[in-house]
Amino acid sequence: MSAAEDLLDLCRARGMKICCAESLTGGLLADAFVSVPGASDTYRGSVNTYAVDSKASILGVSSEWLAAHGPVNSFTAESMASGALHLFGCDGEGLNEERSGIALSTTGVAGPGPDGDIPAGTVFLGCALSDGSVRTRECHFSGGRAEVRRKAVEAALDLGLSALRDSRS
């Protein structure tokens, strides 16, 4: 069984939904979920905010923060995950009080070269739960662009699994 299947099964058992906000993975995280038969009962969707300004306009990441610090950091990953949780109605608030969920996010530098002073392979992952808990993970992967993106997806799924296993939701 794949990590995506495990995460879907765990969410299904808890009555939770899954959503994503992706940057460097460009839809690969979404693909990991939709490749699993029956995912539609648990997986809500993904938004690909590859452009820096789309992280602000779609997910609500602070444009001031992005201008000052750029998109490759833990705060951006955290904000992207929280924004996705709200965007897809998995935050358990307002009209969605009964819909709890988890959101995963990816941002980083896939390569082949660095982005300014940030080396290729630098990735920040975010995970937000509807209970208000948020965690991030910083990763440094080696390999080419495709390998960095694949490793980022694997690490994001692992982050989600560990967050749910640690959670009481």
TrEMBL record:
Record field: transmembrane: none
Cross-referenced InterPro entries: CinA-like_C, CinA_C
Pfam families linked: CinA
Domain of life: Bacteria
Domain CinA C-terminal intervals: 3-159
The protein's name in its UniProt record: CinA C-terminal domain-containing protein
Organism: Alloscardovia macacae
